[in-house]
Amino acid sequence: MKKQVYVNIFLETGLRVDPRITLIAGESGLSKEIKISEMNRPGLALAGFYDFFAYDRIQIFGLGEAAYMKQLPPEQKRNVYEKFFSYDILCCIFTHSERPDELFCKMADENGVSVFVTERKTTNFVGLLTHLLYNLFAPAISVHATLVEVFGIGIMLMGKSGVGKSECALELLERGHKLVADDVVEIKKVDEVLLVGNRTDILKHYMEIRGLGIINVQDIFGIRSVRNKKRIELVASLEEWDDTKEYERLGLDENTYPILDIKLPLITVPVRPGRNIPVIIEAAALNQHLKKLGINSAQQLDERLKNLMEKKNG
Question: What is the DSSP string of 68-86?
Fold first, then answer.
């Protein structure tokens, strides 16, 4: 009887995506550990070229590999399979509901190589698997911060304990924005330019508000007030107002905050009684939207002033 299985990688990412794969051979190989996020198409290896055979990756058999195996004469087929399984193969996945022959399955059982079949097309399945594997193997760190989504922009609020990060997030929630994580943000580097922040499973959508205690944001504000993850596009550092410090007033200088070798835009927001920090964060989110469109208000004003001075001097 066919056994429907879900490889650990599909569950550990937290995405809960159904890969629609069926185990047909090599159940003893399920304990093997996947250590590499890339996959391999073994067409060249089946044809006899093993110089750069990436045997330690998931082997994807598409229509081309399946058609080549079907047309092999029995004796040559055995030789091809023996050579293939002489390597410590991680696992094999056949797409388009193509099924390997009995000899292939028999050798897979003997060598402890799990063989799966999926009804998905090769391109679609590889895209899904690539996304899941990159999420699983992405470099990650945990940061003491609060992550919110404001007007679609993921903003990470940072600062010393007691500066008002959670209170700022609470006011943003009241204004219709979303909470991703409070106190601890788990950050993954999904690719060379993309950082994604997640909540922890333990804290979920809880917040600690000094003087009030622990609250459940989802229960109070509703399901639309929370997100499980969000791309981080801006860092807002909250700090107590220091009269001896000179704060940015024009916005011409682009400050950055490095996380996992990716530099994120950084703004420093001084906090003191009377300043409406949530409104400032909203304005920062809208300004970040404009910058993504290539519109920089500070630079525009600077250019306008320069042109005006040139006209007067001319």
Answer: HHHTS-HHHHHHHHHHHHT
